Give the backbone structure.
Amino acid sequence: MNTFTESRTELEVIPCAICREITPTKRLTDVGMFGWPTHVSICKQCGLVFLSPRWTRERYNQYYSEEYEGDYREDKEKADETEQRKIRQAWPRLARYLPENPQAVLDIGCGLGWALAHAAEQIPNVRIAGMETSEESIVHLREVIGAEFIGTDVDTDWHLDHQGSFDLVIMRMVAEHLLDPVAAFKKVRSVLKDDGIFYIAVPNMLNPDGSLRDFWYRVVHTYYYAKPTLTRILHLAGLEPVEIREEEFELWAVVQRRDSFDDPGLPSVYHLQLQVLRRYQARRAVRAFLNLFNPRKLLARMPAGLKNLIPESIKERFRRLVYRH
Ligand SMILES: [Zn+2]
């Protein structure tokens, strides 16, 4: 794994993507996965959670092209199985909003094209296109999946050649990596047909998973969305969720173009977000503490001499105890 010191990496302060300016923020942490400096901040005005300060665009580009895959590489068979399961789960969410006779599907950050392959199975003769960075994925996309490859980087001008072309744009577990989500969503909007839909899924900041420090907060996760903050960012790009839901640790939405709408002025999620994090951390601390006294683990750690003194019936009761926390 790559290691670095912060002094080697330039950082920049980022304006809030919703408030559109540099706003007062509260720092949630300075350390994330791999123990790397990861400055997670929350906007005190709207409650959006994002990295600031964070690496410059140049540093991110360098990281994604040279280091990312080495740090996050997954076993291919396991990834295939997980991704196929996830797209089977996601498809019914979006299928009922698809326009009639869909002709073209784009997946941004398509990996090895699992969602595109599924779309081609579900929709006869559909044109499938993908955007992905790794060379291996691009070759796989063209030669195995039979998809068109339309670019490596959402922040380039790829969209200019595809205006109003897609019935469905998919972006799963990608938007948390974006450097400018409003700009990226505007491009997505511009490539959608008038009645096209955009399916987006991101980790849900109002229901985190695992250790915040060692798993949830990552230097590559630049934005941490909640239902209200994702909705407001979509609004800024001229998009409106027709359905937006929290499921386990995921937040997903089916989104359509909207030319004009009254932004309902969603309330700030700042206090709710802090409350969720306080409770989450308290729950994890209690669980770690109780684990110290887990009878089964105590029994396993006990010296054999001492263990032999305990009647078998009591040991059995210990073993059967299931701690629920
Ligand atoms: Zn804000």
Observations:
- The two ends are 34 Å apart (CA to CA).
- The pocket of zinc ion is lined by residues 16, 18-19, 23, 43, 45-46, 48 (CB under 6 Å).
- The longest strand covers residues 192-203.
